[in-house]
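Exam prep: given the inputs below (a chain plus nicotinamide-adenine-dinucleotide), describe the expected output before reading on.
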Amino acid sequence: MAPRVLLTGGAGFIGSHTVIILLRAGYAITVVDNLVNSSLKSVERVREIAADEGIEGVDLDVEVVDMCDKAAFEKVFEKYSVGGFSAVIHFAGLKAVGESMALPLMYYENNLINTMNLLSLMEKFDCRRIVFSSSATVYGAATEMPITEETQTGAGITNAYGRTKYMIEGILSDFQKSKEKTEKPWSVTVLRYFNPVGAHPSGKIGEDPSGPPNNLMPYVSQVAVGRREFLSVFGNDYDTPDGTGVRDYIHVMDLAAGHLSAITYMDKKPSVYSVFNLGTGNGYSVLNMVSAMEKASGKEIKYKIVDRRPGDIATCYADAERAKVEMGWEAKLGLDEMCRDLWAWQSANPNGFE
Ligand SMILES: NC(=O)c1ccc[n+]([C@@H]2O[C@H](COP(=O)([O-])OP(=O)(O)OC[C@H]3O[C@@H](n4cnc5c(N)ncnc54)[C@H](O)[C@@H]3O)[C@@H](O)[C@H]2O)c1
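Solution:
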């Protein structure tokens, strides 16, 4: 029987792409999602892609459950208790930075409680391997580039969303340590994502933000497709080559592959707490991204320079060497592929999954 992996938040942007990578690798999958920021259409499309790619023996189940409802969540673990979950990839969480400042309690409650429920159920049902979706935002106001996993975290985080990631990393570390000397040790892999963009090359799945996008590239692609008039560029007086903010963009398929690497890495490490940056190590400015998207889409992308956004830093890019050395993972796709695939998704689905 194929090992089964539980993907919390697996109907979302990064989760749905990771499902494809894991199906290709022969895993059985259970997705748990309450669809607060996603739709079952993404899972339907994943099935189509699996068929298009000729993946055999697809075993993909979906449970629509709010993980904060522990009793309902426990039923999922019970349902799969024969065979169980060989590992969990924990994507589920609320992720809009601005919203997290307006509604911090909602963010702390959802992101922390769903994690606590998950860990206690994993313990009860004896699943002891977890990959956690963290973020470069835990590095707060780091100024020295590139950012390594040893760069200080916690200081200078400017929003509640980022603090939930920082807190969850702490919870996972304490918990893993408490199990180290027992007969049932845990393996925990924390993946700190830089800026995921792009889509599966088929254009059938992609990022589908509800309301105005918080991140640059979904906004840029909505301008390209005519859904929004212009892009607001937050500041052009940063200390960067063209004055606009520089970030490390990573293709979502590369990022998804990092989760498979993390699972196989933990196969060899029954007791470990590891942290990896997932980025390309390249920094691109807002204006670099705009012109790359103009090239990919053949559309003009209008923009206006507006004030800086509080909390934004000039430059942020990763040192992703540790993931390469220890997990054998590295990003393979470049800016052209990111924009080509984002455009394939956006142009075929101008209104997302609607
Ligand atoms: N996309 C990014 O730029 C980025 C960057 C760094 C980290 N991350 C993290 O990666 C993870 C996945 O991000 P994404 O971009 O795919 O986001 P997403 O919103 O598309 O996916 C998250 C999924 O979790 C589900 N969810 C939320 N709360 C839940 C709950 N209580 N019970 C069950 N399901 C719940 C949502 O419905 C959604 O499908 C998140 O934890 C996010 O914080 C994302």
